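Researcher: Please translate sequence to structure tokens.
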Amino acid sequence: MGLADFGTIALMVAFALCVYGTVVPHLGVRANNWNLVRSAQNATILTFFLVAIASAILINALITSDFSIIYVWEHSSTDMPLVYKFSSFWGGLNGSLLFWVLVQSFFAMIVAYRYQYSNREIIPYVIATFNLIMAFLLLLLIGWSNPLELQSVIPEEGRGLNPLLQNPAMAIHPPSLYLGFIGFSVPFAFAMGALIRGKIDNEWVLTTRRWTLMAWYFLSAGLILGGQWAYEELGWGGFWAWDPVENAALMPWLTGTAFLHSVMIQEKRNLLKIWNVVLIIMTYGLTILGTFITRSGVINSVHSFTQSEIGPLFLIYLALIMIIAFALLFKRIKMLESEYKIESVLCRENVFLAQNVLLVGIAFTVLLGTTFPLLSEAVRGTKLSIQAPFFNTITAPMGYALLLLMGVGMLISWRKSSWEGLQGNFQNPAILATAGTIFLSWLLYEKNLQWEVYITFWSAIFVTSIFLLELVKTSYIKSQQTETNFLMGVFYAFSSNRRRYGGFLIHFGAVLMFLGFAGTFFSLERDITLEPGSSKQIGDYRLEFKNVSEFQIGNVKHRAAIIDVFDNEGNFLEVMKPAKSFYPTQPQPLTEVAILRFFMEDLYLIFSSENGDEQGSVTLRVYINPLIGWAWMALPIFTLGVGISLTYRPKSLLDSENILKERYIAAQVTG
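Model: Translation complete:
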């Protein structure tokens, strides 16, 4: 028996443990036998190690180029760099499913170990929910998509990983998306546990707050890194095309963002309990729908996997999960009704609610635009194509409203606010936003900008000024109270209210993303033909073509146009090398773009063609993309903001966990 067979056996044992972990917690609760629940927790922990063994076997086979395993032969080759051999683990359908189970079992293990003292009323059903999810995924792995399946004839060389996936961003982008998708299963499992048990208080919301925030962060990072990959690798000058697979990742991010805001209302005001359960069910359901879209073969996309038998199974699983979850919700709906009401129109609760409506509205629009062509083809047999203008026309106004509400939410109070107070809070940010927009309008007068750009600029300056004015004011007060300098005041401001200022930073990252999107409204695109030694002026840059050169980098041969770039004053900036790339396992050349990055804009070159004339001319496509780098800068800002927010934990939750832990230890001592 080889290692691959041993890995398959490990997956089979893991499946049996998941079935055990699904059934036994119910029996433990009914018999009031906590030892049975504890055995299910231990089974959950053991499941992770078994899946990790199978994953380690596959990774070792990829690194050592063991082509006796079909998956290794299909997605790896001996000439690939080590990092891409490793990333082949999730670069194909079967391997990505094993990676999904690995992360899912890791999260389940953490929950089983971390909450062995707390949440005792609902944790048995949380564990059962996790094991049900893992049992389904393992069944798919063993029955239809085993990445450790062997082949009788061992080839000398593999097919290699799709060249489009041999990009540093693609080594991080898919795992980040998986961490986000799977992370939302944690609050979903706790919500299901609370519904099954009938313990409908705020404990499950407080317990999963940090899990939700981390899931949101990883999904955000995955989307940003995916945009970077599309921008750098696909060679079309953009980063978002409303592709169905892109949409599949965006939809749970939108509802997850709504959930992250909405649970704050439940925590602060004990409102929107029903809505929060609906949101987390929708979010988890959309992660499964996204998996169906990428694995069913029903759509053609550079992002999607090939057609497989497991796509329809995901759709069946989604239907069952939604039926069970909403049946539980309707069963407990009376218990979820709030005894409190929103007291005033002018309050933060209503701002958050408006944001929720907009986020869900955008998600519904994206869902409709993504699935309607599929439904039309299934019902009428005709293919429809819904393009970017549909999505942009409907979602853009809601996006502008969201940006504006980010600022409003920071200024308005919980429960009730007065018009007079709001006018005082809004006055200075509104003045700064108006002045800043007028200045930018004058600066960019020759660009003939669309009205959407001015709305984005005004809202972005408005939100940023609110954050900065609040920070300066609080930091000054803290520096006076502690008799320290202003920088220490900033530190004390953040440390005294980590959740608030961490949220401010996250919102500032969102502002940068909006500004990056706004840059597309005044980007420049040109096709130019150059002969050796000739040059052309494009925007603020002069491009001089030297020659065509061939060179090798790793396993890839490049044929590049050598372009010297100068600024308006004739100063040399850089040599750019847009190229056609030839991979050993790929018959057709791929486009390798060249990007010269500045703080305010990118110069982006594509080697379109060699023209084959006597002069040896080449044709280039040139883009000047303003502000695009600001969208990428959002990721480190998100990282800092989320990191600060994660250090906050509600005191009530900490006290509850400590009391339960002390009681458990005392019970163990007394026997």
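Researcher: Any highlights?
Model: The mean pLDDT is 87.
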